[in-house]
Q: What sequence folds into this?
């Protein structure tokens, strides 16, 4: 471990950043350094601008990902190196506010039924039944399943916030079936990392959840772009269409601001169809095409 890497790691840990953020920030600075083949403390604003342009133009990264990369570099220069950082010279990119893609309940059922293995099936069921993020799903512990209160405890979610989500009877039945089929019962993590024999207490990598989703979508023949977050969007939208209020959905999703949750109003069929188009109120003459 280099001296600069150690300094940055300690700065992040002292501020109680999550392990995922720490790994992301460290990797970004390493990538930045390798791009110019120089130590990062010998790179300046010009190199940062070139790096930012490359992330967009050559690597085709999303505005959100580029913003995260810039935040990592800003932390390194301001907190670790104690150098100035000019927002004017390295502005954060504007985000595109896209409406999320949604599957119908029938398509969700097709996706789950197309899971390659029972293990992948339970991962997909967990995503849709709870609306958790894939990183949150990977870190659910056995002790987080509370069948008496019919809730699942989500610890250390985004923003280091804990919350409870519902435990549906159908999911509980599926979890018990999954549990009975395990030859070795996990003691800590509900989904332990089986590849790390020396560190049996490690949870699965969240990429396992992503691959489960991708493989099921391919097997189901669904043409839409589908990833774990799609099932989170479906969870929220289908709840809204079933009559749940936005505040409840906000709490279940772990959103800090209700504005984040209101995006589902744009995709809920119940809300879209509840408002009549002004065209329907017009008294128009018959506009059927005339015969030639």
A:
């Amino acid at each position: 471990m280099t001296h600069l890497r150690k300094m940055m790691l300690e700065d992040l840990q002292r501020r109680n950043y999550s392990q995922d953020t720490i790994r992301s920030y460290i990797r970004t600075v390493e990538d930045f350094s390798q791009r110019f083949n120089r130590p990062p403390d010998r790179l300046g604003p010009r190199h940062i601008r070139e790096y930012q342009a490359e992330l967009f133009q050559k690597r085709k990264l999303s505005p959100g990902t580029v913003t995260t990369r810039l935040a990592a570099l800003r932390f390194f220069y301001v907190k670790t190196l104690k150098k100035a950082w000019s927002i004017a010279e390295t502005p954060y990119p504007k985000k595109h506010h896209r409406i999320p893609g949604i599957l119908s309940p029938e398509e969700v059922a097709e996706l789950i039924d197309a899971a390659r293995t029972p293990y992948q099936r339970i991962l997909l069921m967990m995503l849709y039944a709870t609306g958790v993020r894939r990183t949150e799903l990977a870190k659910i512990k056995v002790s987080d399943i509370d069948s008496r209160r019919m809730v699942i405890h989500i610890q250390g979610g985004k923003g280091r916030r804990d919350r409870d989500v519902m435990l549906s009877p159908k999911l509980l039945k599926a979890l018990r079936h999954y549990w009975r089929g395990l030859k070795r019962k996990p003691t800590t993590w509900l989904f332990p990392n089986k590849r790390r024999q020396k560190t049996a207490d490690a949870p699965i990598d969240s990429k396992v959840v992503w691959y489960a989703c991708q493989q099921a979508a391919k097997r189901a023949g669904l043409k839409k772009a589908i990833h774990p977050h799609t099932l989170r969007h479906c969870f929220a939208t289908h709840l809204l269409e079933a009559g749940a209020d936005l505040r409840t959905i906000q709490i279940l999703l772990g959103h800090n601001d209700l504005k984040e949750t209101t995006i589902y109003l744009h995709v809920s069929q119940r809300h879209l169809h509840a408002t009549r188009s002004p065209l329907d109120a017009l008294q128009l003459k018959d506009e059927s095409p005339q015969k030639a």
The chain has 13 helices and three strands. The CA atoms of residues 2 and 8 lie 10 Å apart. The chain has two domains: 3-80, 105-273.
